[in-house]
Amino acid sequence: SVMAVLIGSGLYDFTWLGATPMWTGSALSVQSGVIEEVLARGIILRLTWRAFGPWAAFIFSSALFGAGHFGNPNASSWAALCIAVEAGILLGAFYALTGRPGVSIGLHAGWNFTQGTLFGAAVSGTDFGGAIARSTAREGLPLWLAGGPFGPEASLPALVICTSVGLLTLWLAWKAGRFAKPIPAPATPV
């Protein structure tokens, strides 16, 4: 949805490149999904939740997750804030809803693969290698609107869409009674 809004509204230029090997992008997507989610949700969110409750855990783990992206190419305070809010809430909410880190890992890896390998956009300022298309922010647009060279994650559409989905998922987790202390055990499969 984020890429559809960015391309459809004219904020991004899109060029179809054609078939290409996707091994590098796939590997980087899975690697970043696993490492970042095990650290951010599996360790930091879970342990902070047990010690201080869910709201402190969400704030702390989201802030650390955003700050962890400051070292990426083309990072800015705006980009780190977007990552903290949109991804911190979205990925943490799915973990809270299911109690399963694999859901957050899969969502994170899927986001990176779609954004970097399918659409060929920068993923947190990084080029993920071969892509079947190339998507770039149009020149002259404000960074807060289109994300610039950091990529779609630092755009207003990503902030609005991902945060909205994250808040809806948080509400579903709350309605399901998942905000007990400590972090709930995995939900029963449906």
Topology, element by element:
Layout: H1 2-8, E1 12-16, H2 23-52, H3 54-67, H4 77-98, H5 101-118, E2 133-137, H6 143-146, H7 156-175
Antiparallel strand pairs: 1-2
Helix pairs in contact: 1-7, 2-3, 2-5, 3-4, 4-5, 4-7
Report on the structure:
- It is built from seven helices and two strands; from the N terminus they run αβααααβαα.
- It is mainly alpha-helical.
- It has helices at 2-8, 23-52, 54-67, 77-98, 101-118, 143-146, 156-175, and strands at residues 12-16, 133-137.
- A two-stranded antiparallel sheet has the order 1-2.
- The model has no long low-confidence stretch (mean pLDDT 93).
- The longest helix has 30 residues, at 23-52.
- Helix content is 61%, strand content 5%.
Quick take:
By secondary structure, the chain is mostly helical. It contains seven helices and two strands. The two termini are 26 Å apart.
Let me know the largest β-sheet.
Answer: 2 strands, antiparallel
Uncertain runs with pLDDT below 50, 5 residues or more?
A: none
Structural class: mainly alpha
Count of helix runs: 7
CA distance, first residue to last residue: 26 Å
The proportion of residues forming helix, as a percent range, comes to: 55-70%
**How large is the radius of gyration?**
16 Å
The helix-strand sequence is HEHHHHEHH
Task: Please list the strands of the largest sheet in the order they lie side by side.
Answer: 1-2
